[in-house]
Amino acid sequence: MSTTYVDWEFAKTTGRTLVAAGPSVSADEAAAEVGAIREAARRAHGPVAETSRLQTPDDAPDALIVDRPTWIAMNADSMGAMLGPAFEQIMTKRGTAAAPNGIAASIGGKVTGAEAGALLAFMSSKVLGQYDLAPGGTPALLLVAPNLLQVQRELGVDPEDFRAWVCMHEETHRVQFTAVPWLRDHMITEARQLATDMAPDQERVQELTKRITEKLPELFSSGSGGITDLVTTPEQRAKLAELTAVMSLLEGHADVVMDDVGPAHIPTVAEIRAKFTERRKGAGAVDKVLRRLLGLEAKMRQYKDGAAFVRGVQERVGVEGFNAVWTSPETLPKPLEITDPAAWVTRVHG
Q1: Mean local confidence (pLDDT), 188-216
Q2: What Pfam families does this protein map onto (predicted)?
Q3: Disulfide check for 41: which of 63, 180, 279, 333 has CB 3.0–4.6 Å away?
């Protein structure tokens, strides 16, 4: 049923066709970089566990070091597995009469597949690493080798320290999901439900298209959350805010851990953080437009807001007190608490 909406194999083909070339390296240089990243990922286990006071299970598989096309393929599979059940629920709600015929479904699936592939191609050159939740499959920690090398060269920072710094961040994401067993299923369930709720009824499609056309300039105003601001209801935005609060927690926590680990294990951590933060501000015009349209500017705020929340909580109740956040879905921060850590402490700790 899900292929009615998105042809994910076509998305992979489109992504591979459009993906930008990575940095120029010889085969020997590429092999050496992959080996160095793999070793940095292994060395991140202990320091992240010690700093976060969370433990990745000993039998967790090693990180996967991937190129851009592989990242595209794996994320297309994960997106298909994530959204497939949501699409089926949408069709059930609309009834079989709303289902397109075979030819229309094939054409529509390739159109949306091409769109998804183009988005994945763009993102594949931006992502340094990712913990792939892999709904229905095996979760994996991914590190995108050409992107680590490219950013390290652009920043002009120590290669070994930069690899270690990125791996600390991504290892923190892995420990979040492996040390907190309920978190993965919770995130998958919430994302699927949100996708189902946000799917417009057929009669609203034309209305939304008109609204997007008229309001497109607003996407470029300060504080815009991307195109979703224009196509969601207040109730949907409230649900989206709840999921965003959790994403802010996860990203902010990873940033805090990577920087707290840094001084003891990464001599140039302060220089890397300063240059990396400045790089986020210095994107080109086209890149900034795409980031704003896709809501990625809002994602950048997640790092800042989430890190401030983690720091604020830890200052009040320490790391162990902060780790109460992982107790259950009810102890995750609410949208307003992300910018008011004292409110979370009062609610959870009394």
Answers
A1: 63
A2: Zincin_2
A3: 63
Distance CA 114, CA 325 (A): 39
pTM: 0.82
Q: What is the pLDDT of residues 83-96, one digit of tens each?
A: 887 777 666 665 54
* Alpha-helical runs (H) found in the chain: 8-18, 27-52, 68-94, 102-124, 145-155, 159-179, 181-198, 202-215, 228-231, 234-265, 269-281, 285-294, 296-322, 341-349
Bridge partners (DSSP) of residue 66 are 144
DSSP class of residue 336 equals: G
Token reading at 187: 């995130």
- CA dihedral of residues 176, 182, 184, 185 (deg, nearest 10): -170
Are the C-beta atoms of residues 41 and 170 closer than 8 Å to each other? yes
Neighbouring residues of 163: CB distance < 8 A, sequence distance ≥ 6: 36, 37, 40, 148, 152
Q: What is the largest CA-CA distance in the chain?
A: 63
Q: What is the pLDDT of residues 209-242, one digit of tens each?
A: 454 455 545 544 544 455 555 556 778 778 888 9
Confidence of residue 317 (pLDDT cuts 50, 70, 90): very high
Burial of 217 (0-12, 13-18, 19+ CB in 10 A): exposed
